[in-house]
Write a structure and sequence with these properties.
It is a single chain. The protein contains 8 helices and 8 strands; from the N terminus they run βββαβαβαβαααβαβα. It has helices spanning 46-54, 82-96, 114-125, 142-145, 166-173, 177-181, 201-210, 228-246, and strands at residues 2-9, 12-19, 29-35, 58-62, 102-112, 132-136, 187-193, 214-219. The chain has an 8-stranded mixed β-sheet, sandwiched between helices. Helix 1 (46-54) crosses helix 8 and helix 2 (82-96) crosses helix 3. The two termini are 26 Å apart.
């Protein structure tokens, strides 16, 4: 069962889909909130949501305001920053944890690329409300991308050069990444492709060293976006973590 769910952020709306188990019982279910990467929208996370649904895990996929092309949420790409996406995720979490079928003691945050970066930054502020993180190819390279004098071809600013301007750059420059994330003490799983040319795997290795309680899983043949087989493996890990914590 999939429900369209729009969440208000002041005068704006955040568009998303809530994936619920098909044969729901009168009990509470774990939740995974899935945040997409830059220039994309909720559809890139559908495969994860579908796989989690089969494991009786609720998930929510949504569009950041101005977060990418074909976004169904309010907002313009030119107004989107790391800070506005952090605000969106906090609003989403605050809304979803109040839904009666969701177990507010088994809420996890997940994300891909910039969505994983945003998830990492938000997690420190909401640690008491969540149980852990699942990060897919987190774009920890973004702060460094802002300061390159000569842009590498896969610099994030080349993704949407007609939209990413001063507001985005200044927001990203404020991030002191490894210092910002080191105080998150709950479980963190980082999944990264060895062949990722957009976010070199070295950034994930350094994050794994910074987190007090993390596990890094490197897929030798994967690029920045994972294949369906790897997504299935990721979801299997998520399932095992969630249900082992339940016991």
């Amino acid at each position: 069962m999939i429900e369209e769910l729009k969440i208000r952020n002041n005068d704006d709306l955040i568009y998303g889909l809530l994936y619920l188990p098909d044969n729901m019982e009168k009990k509470k279910y774990p939740l995974v909130i899935l945040s997409h990467g830059l220039s994309l929208n909720h559809s890139i996370m559908k495969s994860y949501a579908q796989k989690l649904q089969k494991e009786n895990i609720i998930s929510y996929i949504y569009d950041f305001r101005g977060g990418g092309y074909d976004s169904r949420s309010s907002g313009k790409i030119s107004d989107m920053t790391i800070d506005t996406e952090k605000e969106d995720l906090i609003n989403v979490l605050d809304y979803l944890k109040r839904i009666s079928c969701i177990d507010d003691e088994r809420i996890y945050l997940a994300g891909h690329s910039q969505g994983a970066l945003v998830t990492s930054l938000v997690a420190v502020d909401v640690e008491s409300q969540i149980e852990g993180l699942f990060l897919f190819a987190p774009a920890y390279v973004i702060p460094d991308d802002m300061t390159e004098e000569v842009r590498r071809p896969k610099n994030v600013l080349n993704l949407m050069p007609e939209h990413l301007g001063t507001k985005y750059i200044e927001s990203a420059k404020k991030i002191d990444l490894y210092d910002d994330i080191k105080d998150f003490n709950k479980t963190v799983y980082i999944f990264h492709g060895q062949k990722d040319s957009r976010v070199p795997v070295e950034y994930a290795i350094k994050a794994d060293e910074a987190y007090p309680n993390s596990k890094l899983i490197i897929y030798q043949d994967e690029e920045h976006r994972f294949t369906e087989d790897t997504k299935a493996d990721v979801v299997n890990t998520i399932k095992n973590v969630i249900y082992s914590n339940e016991e």
